[in-house]
């Protein structure tokens, strides 16, 4: 094992053992500490809604206004926003998103950061810093019955504890680089489209070139070391199929790249589009042919949905309508039926430790898949599965729980699905999405007002 890795890991093991988990007993304590409630007794398939413990892996990802939703940018609606802004008639709510976007972009420009997986201080197991490297977020060493433990990482078998994030993974920088690249990219492209400041176009372009195109700093187009379970000799560590999920934010980033190419700038050129397309094509091939990629395509829960949403979005970016259509149909034919029950319950997500979080998360993927499907004439939003259920049924099911005071998931995380529903289905007396949005915003001090996606999911 390399010295640098040993030093980093030794520190982490100390942190892990002293602060969160000493031995297996505490893993079991953790399970027992989960506050489980049965919220849906009217539905035999609904499993239980489990309530996460804030501070113990509590998911707050989208409550941050700068957070990125998996989405396809609706250019027509963004154009409406631009026109109304120029005429000075933009609503107060959307003005908040504009102001918030401008502030974030100002910080991006001041900080002038570039992101690359190659800047990591911890090398992946093959020592090639072009490879993306992350740890399986919920995996922990189980040292019960193992004698003379010197190194938990290599001596103890690893066990997944759903919902309990191992903080060790946070020291690896590739995931952060990718997340920030996407977050900044979507802001910069939207800002450039709205206001035409070429400095924003340049920053966007430089970031994309650094991450995907320039040979010194590009990321290798595969996820062989994503969500690694660090079990056994280090040279044998390999990613897990779930690591394919780590790239789901590329769906939105590619949508922003398409927007950039339509924005009429001169810094972003055809060769940037071609360079990014080359990367995307290679990565899609890896997804479709590698052992890990193929295994992830069979994931029945949000993993499978995000897999096909990625293939659909990547194919769209490559201009291959047939491949987009094929990905959507594969999802509908193989996974859709098992995901949403007649009641709208999503049992594969409800069985997770953070059941509400994952119920929203799967709909985030399904919503993006459905928007890419629209681009090739397929109407997934209105397609029902074998249980006569759809995205809409699932959203309606979640409304009653989201608005209940019994859960600790931030209801603001549900707003993007309600906004999409208001757009796609419209309100009726039973399910008034506009009303639910108002209610959640009021309950959460504004909810997602300020988020960039409102500029293109607006009514
Ligand atoms: C931002 O950083 C790049 C290098 O990454 C540099 O070329 C450029 O001059 C910097 N811009 C500003 C305004 O400092
Ligand atoms: C990576 O580098 C370390 C230290 O130089 C070495 O022990 C290890 O065998 C290398 N791994 C591979 C896969 O080359
Ligand atoms: C941990 O390892 C022990 C000993 O092999 C085993 O009995 C136990 O089931 C494991 N616990 C978990 C949660 O995997
Ligand atoms: C990914 O890992 C597999 C299995 O170890 C290997 O066969 C394949 O060549 C690797 N791919 C890349 C691009 O490194
Ligand atoms: C796309 O699919 C249509 C209908 O199945 C077929 O006629 C066409 O040749 C395909 N195009 C490409 C580029 O594969
Ligand atoms: C529950 O699941 C079974 C199959 O496992 C299905 O036949 C049944 O229709 C489902 N019930 C509801 C209420 O969705
Ligand atoms: C989808 O369903 C909604 C609500 O039933 C309806 O208003 C809308 O027209 C449908 N869209 C399409 C394209 O069928
Ligand atoms: C939905 O609620 C809003 C109030 O927030 C109300 O103005 C509207 O009429 C309702 N729509 C329907 C179809 O009931
Ligand atoms: C808005 O939230 C406040 C504080 O939670 C509450 O007192 C008030 O009744 C809410 N207003 C509406 C219209 O729901």
UniProtKB/TrEMBL annotation:
Family matches, as Pfam families: Alginate_lyase
Record-level Gene Ontology MF annotations: lyase activity
Domain of life per record: Eukaryota
InterPro entries: Alginate_lyase_dom, Chondroitin_lyas
SUPFAM superfamilies: Chondroitin AC/alginate lyase
Alginate lyase domain span: 117-403
GO cellular component assignments: periplasmic space
Signal peptide location: 1-18
Keywords recorded for this protein, A-Z: Lyase, Signal
UniProt protein name: Alginate lyase domain-containing protein
Species lineage: Eukaryota, Fungi, Fungi incertae sedis, Mucoromycota, Mucoromycotina
């Amino acid at each position: 094992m390399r010295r640098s890795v040993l030093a980093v890991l030794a520190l982490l093991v100390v942190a892990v053992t002293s602060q969160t988990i000493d031995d297996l007993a505490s893993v079991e304590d953790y399970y027992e500490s989960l506050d489980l409630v049965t919220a849906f007794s009217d539905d035999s398939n609904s499993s239980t809604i489990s309530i996460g413990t804030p501070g113990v892996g509590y998911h707050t990802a989208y409550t941050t206004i700068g957070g990125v939703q998996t989405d396809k940018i609706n250019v027509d609606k963004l154009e409406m926003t631009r026109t109304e802004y120029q005429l000075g008639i933009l609503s107060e709510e959307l003005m908040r998103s504009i102001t918030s976007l401008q502030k974030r972009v100002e910080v991006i420009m001041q900080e002038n950061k570039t992101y690359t997986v190659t800047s990591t201080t911890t090398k992946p197991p093959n020592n090639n810093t072009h490879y993306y490297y992350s740890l399986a977020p919920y995996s922990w060493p189980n040292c019960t019955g193992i004698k003379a433990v010197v190194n938990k990482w290599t001596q103890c078998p690893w066990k997944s504890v759903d919902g309990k994030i191992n903080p060790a993974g946070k020291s690896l920088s590739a995931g952060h680089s990718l997340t920030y690249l996407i977050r900044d990219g979507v802001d910069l492209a939207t800002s450039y489209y709205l206001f035409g400041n070429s400095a924003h176009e340049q920053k966007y372009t430089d970031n994309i070139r650094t991450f995907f195109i320039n040979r010194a700093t590009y990321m290798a187009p595969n996820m062989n070391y994503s969500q690694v379970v660090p079990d056994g000799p280090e040279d044998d560590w390999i990613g897990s199929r779930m690591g394919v999920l780590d790239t789901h934010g590329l769906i939105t980033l590619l949508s922003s790249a398409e927007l950039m190419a339509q924005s009429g700038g001169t810094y972003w050129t055809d060769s940037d589009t071609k360079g990014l397309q080359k990367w995307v094509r290679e990565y899609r091939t890896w997804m479709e042919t590698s052992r890990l990629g193929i295994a992830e395509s069979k994931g029945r829960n949000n993993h499978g949905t995000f897999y096909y949403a990625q293939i659909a979005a990547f194919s769209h970016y490559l201009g291959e309508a047939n491949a987009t259509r094929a990905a959507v149909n594969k999802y509908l034919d193989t996974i859709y039926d098992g995901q949403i029950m007649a009641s709208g319950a999503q049992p594969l997500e409800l069985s997770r430790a953070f059941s509400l979080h994952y119920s929203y998360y799967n709909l985030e993927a399904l919503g993006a898949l459905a928007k890419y499907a629209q681009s090739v004439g397929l109407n997934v939003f209105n397609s029902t599965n074998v249980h006569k259920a759809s995205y809409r049924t699932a959203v309606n099911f979640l409304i009653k729980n989201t608005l209940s005071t019994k859960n600790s998931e931030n209801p603001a995380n549900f707003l993007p699905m309600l906004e999409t529903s208001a757009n796609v289905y419209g309100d009726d007396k039973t399910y008034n999405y506009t009303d639910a949005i108002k209610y959640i915003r009021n309950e959460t001090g504004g909810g997602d007002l300020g988020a960039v996606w409102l500029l293109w999911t607006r009514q």
